[in-house]
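pasting for ref. prot 1 ->
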Amino acid sequence: MKVLYLLFSFLFIFLMPLPGVFGDIRNPVTCLRSGAICHPGFCPRRYKHIGVCGVSAIKCCKKP
């Protein structure tokens, strides 16, 4: 049983989202202030995903 607790703790650590992967952009105001656009679904061509605009279905996209 102790092995299961160890396994769950390792899974929890490895499956946690990494800080800084999508930056600190979590709402439309900070997205637009950074010179990006809010786009539903995937980012258009030549745009990079840098965060989300409120909900995870709307992405914050910026030209690199």
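and prot 2 ->
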Amino acid sequence: MSKVPKAALSLKQFMLRQEVLKLYRDIFRTIRQVPDKNSQLELRSWARHDFHTNRHQSDEVAIKMLLQHGRRSLTELKTSLQLSGVSEGK
């Protein structure tokens, strides 16, 4: 009997999952740098909603497109923070 669970992820799925989790963490780390608490709450809500909405996405191409969109949004947020004078902390 195999020790691998039936719902085990393929290597590609595992790697994509890691990319998604990294993006999620990066987004929330960046949101912490937003000085306005109300804006932080709104951004957190937006990010959680987007990730939750696409939680069950299984199409590899769609996931890659969503990752690209998320990275672009993160870059825009970081750029906005830099332009507003908020230091990145790194």
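Residues 11-84 form one domain.
The chain has one domain: 11-84.
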